[in-house]
Predict the structure.
Amino acid sequence: MLHVELTIQGLINGSMYALMAVGLTLVYGLLRILHVAHAGLYTLGAYIAVLIANATGSLALGAAVAIPVVGLAGMIVYRLLYEPILHRPPYVALIASIGLFIVMEESYRLIFGPYGETFNAPYLAERVSVGPIGAKAAEVAMVAGAIVLLGVLAFLSKRTRFGIAWRATVTDPAMARAFGVDTIAVRYANFFIASALAASAAVLVAVLNNLVEPTMGSVPSYKTLAIIVLGGLGNVAGTLVAALALGVIEAFGTIYIGHLLDRDAIAFLFLVLVLMIRPQGLFAAR
Amino acid sequence: MLRLEAMSCGYGGMRAVEALDLDVNAGEIVALVGSNGAGKSSTLMATAGHVALQGGRILFDGADISRASPMARVAAGIALSPEGRRLFRDLSVRENLIVGGYVRDAAHQPGNMDTVLDLFPRLKERFESLAGTLSGGEQQMVAIGRALMSEPRLVLIDEVSLGLMPKMVDVCYRAIQALKARGLAVLLVEQSTARAFAVADRVVVLESGRAVWRGSAAEARGNSAVIDAYLGVAKVEGAA
Ligand SMILES: Nc1ncnc2c1ncn2[C@@H]1O[C@H](COP(=O)(O)OP(=O)(O)OP(=O)(O)O)[C@@H](O)[C@H]1O
Ligand SMILES: [Mg+2]
């Protein structure tokens, strides 16, 4: 029973990682940028949602505003930060991204204060159970949200003309452009979708913890980098598996070696071990 | 249909093709042959808009397209099956074809796809396979099929037979003959002179970026010794 519960707990966390990391790997696949500021956009999504929910009493409204606004913010980050330096070596964009992330975290601290915001009335706090297995409603929402959103993403990318053109652009941008694909539009769409996924994860995490704070993106920022390396940089399916695997391994690790290492240390121990055995990650890079 | 007028192109300061004059008419197959580095691929790439023009003009249906973007040229009716084929390896055959027809209205897609599958029935079996997993011959079919999805009137095909099994080469050339029969213009690069002389209407021999011999395929067959001398010992004989 313990193992079932641990696995479930791991999949819940893994769903959150997946929503975050898929966006990151999409950006990497298209532009070869390690988009650290992704986690800053994630935090932005949580703040927008909690402030609107508290002002209006509607979490749905908060989420409905936060997700597209953060999507747009991602497009703006691409336009203002990355596009001007795309022709430079990749570490330039990485440094710029880390810089933006720090600026964002500090701005949240200055604007919203260091202690964080909570919802006036906690949402989805009740427990739901199926037989002997129980979870918080917010945890169920996390898993369901990840399945639905990533399902929609899979549908878009496999079944629509634009989605196919998007994947063609990832494979060979010059050829895709030659065949008439608007590769600039693909980049904007990529940032919109990646950022909207991050905001969705953030809203769910905010509800789950009933807390939004300036530094809530810190741990996800480096953990999702570890995940996309494990998943084979740019490989979306690999990233999904790596995210869920990391969630489960953390859940088991906290119980069995939690007296030696904390959860984040376990995640990185796992990363180091995997990379020692398979330097290319669990899956091949795209 | 296509006219290159004293066309020069190259890479940065380096010149790959020098003042080339070339016509390709509707319903005609023109073969470019030449040794490694002669400028064959550069000629096709410049025509498709991927290599910078350094002099002269490119006319298509009488209109000067020298400055047009690659996409505008596809829209005008020029399609390229490039050197190395450059398929979208992580996409299926079906998806490669869809991208090939991206400049055309989505409503044309099913009809164009049927045309390609009629030309290359073998692709029906591999329709959902990833392009990167196909054999060389199948990849060549996808590359030509992808080009045809844009409803071109001129098709540029690089390295038709290079590295392919003879049976596959036959399939590809039968398809190219069918395109000609439909009135398309075809400009192709062929490593095997025997193949080139057998299918082409006219042959142009390039050497160090210049046209050094041109004539009908029949004349080429009669002068194969001369042409082979131009191609020199560096000549790469594809699967003939
Ligand atoms: N991307 C490039 N950058 C710089 N120079 C290039 C490039 N591509 C080709 N060249 C040069 O341009 C000249 C013509 O090359 P091109 O590829 O057109 O020859 P080719 O006739 O197609 O040869 P092959 O039979 O080997 O395919 C060569 O000297 C080659 O080295
Ligand atoms: Mg070549």
